[in-house]
Amino acid sequence: MADAFGVFSGPAFLLGDDVNTDLNCSGKYLPGKDLDFIAAQAFEAVSPGFAKRFRSGGIIVAGKDFGINSSREQAVHILRRMGVAAIVAPSFGRQFFRNAINNGLPVLECAVAGIAEGEQVEIDINARRLHLPAQQLSRQLASVPREICAILGEGGLMPFLQKYPDWKLPA
Description:
Structural class: alpha/beta
CATH topology: Aconitase, domain 4
CATH architecture: Alpha-Beta Barrel
Number of strands: 7
Shape: globular
Largest sheet: 7 strands, mixed
Strand content: 15-25%
Strand order of the largest sheet: 4-3-2-1-5-6-7
CATH class: Alpha Beta
Distance between the termini: 16 Å
């Protein structure tokens, strides 16, 4: 398993607390609309124009309980389609968290107060560090188990299992 995965840099795009999966992947669009159409509407109810402002490679910085609500895996597909590099929040809905890992989207727990919209964010998962160069400030990320880093590094659970078909959880 590779351990080199885990360094990201990009502008912050802010969202608040309790942003549920229906706000980026509304059930009113499923089925029948393609992912590009749905991505263009993402988060409109909580941050008008968010999808238009967002740039591929950006990092979503959200409040507590990001991704609460349902187990809708399409919510992660929409974020991937938008080009989200990672999401940082104090906490995540557990089903969303697992769907994100399964689909290769880094979701990292960290204090986010004081991070500004558009501010450059540097993340090093292995060093457990989020750095804000403009503020000369670093924060500690919650630990990410080596196995989850390996899954993320391969682009998600299915690519990981295809590459390592005999892999087993350590005893």
